[in-house]
Specification:
Residues 1-20 form the signal peptide. By secondary structure, the protein is mostly beta strands. It has helices spanning 4-14, 88-91, 371-381, and strands at 19-21, 29-31, 37-38, 40-45, 73-74, 94-96, 99-101, 110-113, 118-122, 136-145, 148-156, 161-174, 179-187, 190-197, 204-209, 224-228, 234-236, 254-261, 264-269, 272-277, 287-293, 308-324, 331-333, 345-348, 365-368. The strands form two sheets. It has a 20-stranded mixed sheet that branches. A five-stranded mixed sheet has the order 1-25-24-2-3.
Length: 382
Amino acid sequence: MASTAAVLALLLLFVPSLHAAVSGKACSCYLTSTHDLFNTYRVHDFRRLPVPASIPALPSQLPPTVTDSTSHSSIPIGTRQQGFLTSKEWASSWDIQTWGKGVSNETKYKMWNSLSSVYIDYENTTTTTTTGKVRTRLVLKTRRFEGFQISAEVENLQKNLLHASTRIRARVLGDSGAVAGLFYYRNDNNESDIEILTRDEASAIWYSNQPVLDSAGNQIPNASTRADLITNNLTDGTQLTSKRSPEFSWSDWHTHRIDWTAGKSSWFVDGNHVLDKTYGVPTATAYLVLNMWSDGGVWSGVMDVGKEARLEIEWIEMAFNTSDEEGMGKREREPGQGGDGCRKLCVVDDSAPSLSAAGRIGGGLREGIMAAVVVVLLAQWL
């Protein structure tokens, strides 16, 4: 009997050549370019929202109860931008974080996530979509004040991911001393990251599975890899070198992809495979987190007072499975279980989702016209 990977590889030879654009609602299972199957698909599209309200000012001081010795605490500060971020669409999928922390032995100043640090922005009026609409984007901003840092973090409310393939169209702009994070998270031992350090050269991106440090604070081999996307050099965190090239820059728009499957994490940029890891692959259910932060520590570096950096996102595309909480422990709900089964297979390609209302299903999917044949083959071979 053929292996699952072999059969899916065979199917991919003909499915892409026999497809038409479809909406996610027309599909019952989803196949990626790496032959992984998922049962749920969502697009969060921030490109064509109504012209947003004014951007709230960042809070210029922390609550008086916050001191250097404050541990992780949730005290809302700042003002939520009116419009999309106060809509049911946003609230049904995302939560802006308001926690913060004081100073530790490893950091130099307090850090606090603010409601004002997450907002919708838009290009100037000369930059529009093909429909004449203003082009919008989601922004997470961090800024250094005297004695503290205002940061930004949002969590996706799908908390029971158990394997996923996520594509994020993003860029990072601003000053040295901050970290942009795109990652799956459950706890410090179940975390898979894409991180961009604004103090790094613009061709460098970090790909890690946690934990990265051992109990003595030393780098764990194979936990974190620094990828130079020009030279294709992959440097383990224990053996850092520095290379610089102007030909690739995370300050330009790129599609960052992070796949999490059983026993393996994989990373891609603009459809090109960069790296696989088998160390530290999450085994617990997780959720997607986006953040832009600094605390003056060794990892982020120190941002100068008055400086800032931004993570800007046009869209997020997710294909994923969820856990089945019944019985003893967690079990992955695989494609085809329950409902209509895997009757209509769609391919998640590496193109941008079509412009659509934010948060709605649609985008980079292709439907196999011979879906019935595909299902028969799957039933026989898998």
